[in-house]
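INFO  loader      accepted 1 record
INFO  loader      residues=290
INFO  predictor   begin
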Amino acid sequence: MKHILVLPFLLFSVSAPSQATVTLQDQAVATEQATPKTFSEMSLEELKAVNTKTLDREDRKAHKKALKAAKKAEKERLAAERKRLKEKAETEKFWAKQMKRHRDKYDASYNATRVGKKAYDADITALSRGVRAGHHAYAWLWSRLPANGRDEHAILVEVEYRAERRSGDTEPFELRSYHWRRYDRAAFDGGQRADISNYQRLVGTCSEYGCNLTESMEIALTHQQLVEAATKAGAINIKLWSGGGFKEYLNISGPTVQGYVMRIHDRTGLFGEAVDAISASEYLQPKYAD
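INFO  predictor   done
INFO  writer      dumping tokens
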């Protein structure tokens, strides 16, 4: 019976904290609460609330120093906040402008793209609006969309320039074969070769001083290249050059490609894999800094 009575007593003794431990903890909390803050630990509002008339000389000096430091810190904080708000406003303005520019190009491309059949052609064709794609170049996106078969895509390019008589020549200008630049090579970003076909040359207006010349060609595109450019809102960039060293850099912007692809999808159902990505394009959605 003695052993049975001792066990509960031992359990109580182990589980119950000692009175001395509780007392020490309370004293530590009370001491911490009773310890006044130093001036350097006070906030600006607390420093301003201090009655300096009750302070001795050394305390007034310490208070003045702490108050000056707190005011400086508050001034820096307010300046940083104004800077943050200004940067946020500028970022919002920037993205609003980018969104409008992107949307304008997208809408222009979508509305100007023509999708349909010609009387003499059984296949559906699509043609985008012409865009200035380089310093001397204009470009159009073109597609052939057969009901049964593989779709074909290309960029139609026209490079315009002027050939003039040499300085010092007195004879009227006469067009020669060497006046043509003959753009015959092209490559996409990354160096991937671009195939050129249907190369043509056109002579425009001429005078005794020179002639306006145009070289036109088709650069083949794949279905996947159009999808990738549309989903990533990325431009199609092509480097075009001739054996004579002339170079032309072509750029068809992302929103132009997006509008073209969406127009084809709405008319034919093709490019369904790109629709969701185009609709969720970051340039078509608000994007502001936090």
